[in-house]
Amino acid sequence: MQRRFFYLVPLAVFLVMAIYFAVGLTKDPKILPSALIDKPVPDFALPPIEGGPGKGFSSANLKGDGVTIVNVFASWCVPCRVEHPLIARLAELNVAKVYGLNYKDKPKDALRWLAELGDPYTAHGADTKGRVAIDFGVYGVPETFIIDNTGTIRYKHVGPMTADKLEREVLPIIKKLDKGNGQ
Amino acid sequence: MSRGVACILLVVAVTWLSPALAVNPDEVLSDPALEERARDISKGLRCLVCQNQSIDDSDADLAKDLRVLVRERLSAGDSNDAVIQFVVARYGDFVLLKPPFKPATLALWLGPVGIAGVGLLAVFFFFRRRRLEVSAGPHGAPTSAKPPEPLSDDEKRRMEDLLKDDKT
């Protein structure tokens, strides 16, 4: 009897591994965990997009001003164009200030892009060398960060925002963080 | 020219070439010692866009930016470890092509050794049992069983009778 049980061990090992790998296969390997979740935003000061009406923004804007969003975008990035209406909708909801980090873009292109698609951002800054983005751990545009009142990064979405993600993750997280601040 | 010589020449020509590298001439540091260290570090850092290439091999824009960044930190006097920590702080352990040894990666590092150990133990017990079975007799009596009782006088007589029959 004991020995029969012993013969089941390989089967059990196989089943455990099969389940483990099956779950692993459903995950997108392109989406990496951010090393900066629950860490303070990096120190930075971004100049406005050259020749535009903006005023730029810095890490100071992301502290003590309620929940804020940083959206990394570029005119050369096609998925950014796709997600832009959703970023605009998020800004319209007025639950958090939305800042735009213009990643390695030509000022002219960026301004034309904003003129064409609309400018939902509270402020945007030009990261022409991509250094601030590296400090944020950005590896693919677009990326969207949620930052709490204390200037701590709480959430990051890689890739174009979807309506589903916005409704089911981004908005509830903003709500939760807002409550945590007692606002 | 014979075909053999042509073949040899082709092999030499192909292997003579150095691999095309992603590092652009304008990125290379003038100090060869620093450049050497930069290359060393770059080879261990993953390009997050292509994921299975190092930033030293990758042509991706981000890889280029990281290569330049590594060189800047080195020029500023950072140690190799400090430069690697700088990148890990932003991109996490995943950026290291060789995962670090720490509690979260114990299964990864020790798993193969553990599985091999279990296999060796299984082989050891398998052969030990077989040896005991062989020494216990051709019918493979279980080792835990009592040794067989000696034959009674009656049985001995019968056995001798049988053996006698065989000889005739």
Helix-strand blueprint:
The complex is a heterodimer of chains A (183) and B (168).
Chain A: H1 2-7, H2 9-25, E1 45-46, E2 57-58, E3 68-73, H3 78-92, E4 97-103, H4 107-117, E5 123-127, H5 131-135, E6 143-147, E7 153-158, H6 163-180
Parallel strand pairs in A: 3-4, 4-5
Antiparallel strand pairs in A: 1-2, 3-6, 6-7
Chain B: H1 3-16, H2 32-43, H3 61-75, H4 80-91, H5 106-136, H6 153-167
Structural class of chain A comes to alpha/beta
CATH homologous superfamily label of chain A: Glutaredoxin
Number of structural domains of chain A? 1
Distance between the termini of chain A: 65 Å
Mean pLDDT of chain B: 85
- Could you tell me the strand content of chain A as a percent range? 15-25%
* CATH top-level class of the largest domain in chain B: Mainly Alpha
What's the CATH first level of chain A? Alpha Beta
Principal-axis shape of chain A equals: elongated
Q: What's the tally of helices of chain B?
A: 6
How many distinct helices of chain A?
A: 6
What string, H for helix and E for strand, traces the elements of chain B in order? HHHHHH
Low-confidence residue ranges of chain B:
none
Plain-language structure description:
The complex is a heterodimer of chains A (183) and B (168). By secondary structure, chain A is of the alpha/beta class. Helix content of chain A is 39%, strand content 18%. Chain A has one domain: Glutaredoxin (3-Layer(aba) Sandwich). In chain A, the strands form 2 sheets. Chain A has a 5-stranded mixed sheet. Chain A is elongated and about 80 Å long. The model of chain A has no long low-confidence stretch (mean pLDDT 91). Chain B is built from 6 helices and no strands. The interface between A and B is medium-sized, with 17 and 15 residues.
Keywords:
heterodimer, A: 183 residues, alpha/beta, Glutaredoxin, five-stranded mixed sheet, 6 helices, 7 strands, B: 168 residues, mainly alpha, Helicase, Ruva Protein, domain 3, 59% helix, elongated
